[in-house]
Amino acid sequence: MSRNDRLADLTTRIGKETGVRHLAECLALADRMHFSVLSCDMPIQADAALAVLGKAVSALRGEAVRFRRFPLVDDSPVSGLDYDRLAADVLNALFDRQSAEGEEVFVIDASRAGKQEEDAWMALFQRLNEMRNVLMERLPGPLLLVAPPLLEIEFCYRAPDFWSIRSTYAKVASAPGLEFGGAEPVYDRDRTEAVADRPDVERLLARISEARRRRVERPDDVDAARSLVILLGRLGDYEMNWGQLAQAEADHLESLKIMKELIALDPNRAEWRRGLSSSLNKVGDVHRTRGDLGKALAAYEESIDVIRDLQHGLSVRTKPSTALKQGGLSD
Length: 331
What we know:
Layout: H1 3-14, H2 18-29, E1 35-39, H3 43-61, E2 65-70, H4 83-95, E3 103-109, H5 118-130, H6 132-138, E4 143-147, H7 149-158, H8 160-164, E5 166-171, H9 200-217, H10 222-242, H11 245-265, H12 270-289, H13 293-311, H14 322-327
Parallel strand pairs: 1-4, 1-5, 2-3, 3-4
Helix pairs in contact: 1-3, 2-3, 4-5, 5-7, 7-9, 7-10, 9-10, 10-11, 11-12, 12-13
């Protein structure tokens, strides 16, 4: 099967995925200060997903919407990018976009990252975290990060402030025949080593260990705490998919506990309160899956209270979290 045939097949498949359709709806409604994440195992999946999104968002808005990708995607090899070149191709290009040429969605495209470029992308993510507010204020349209799972984990770890403001997250499902080592090549270029060809769970566990170590060494390291919250949430999501509900509950409750500690430091920080609401929802999801609807309802109601107070400019309530008390971690 030619690449064009595989791309057409993937475009049809991806266009039916609920997560991608939801992402398209969010991007169609989005304006400035909107950030989303799309996770794809393979570059060809990213190409197909962006084609689907471009068509869907344009249809929903009733006008042509251009998805502008950085670094630029063309027929030349992209391997060997160092940080300086990557920063020039991504950061400088984004900062120059103070006015849109029609309707645009700005895409940071890490889908073609190879192992040799991993360090450069990790450094870029850290720099993005530092420049988050300035960048989001300057961009004239929504921002979308496209990355393979391993680099998505690195983004969670190295850019927790940026991750915390995401509006939507979508994961493209793996497609038969596109796995590494399959009969068909997964790339249209002569590149065989990609960031995605190692188990992303191993990377996730390693980053969780590093974040825990940073918290022990520097208890006041807020970035380490936020990274740990995000990474534990991702691990809990994996465990939910695997049916490991007890471990998923423990990880989501630990994430919630840390989030409550952060809120105690700054009760009025909006992004932390949104993170608290998200952690409560994840705890509720575990309880619902286990059939404990009473605990699930309590967690969901507490999440709604957090958002309601946020909308009304009120401080987060200081009463002990019902979800934590029920989980046994608040003692």
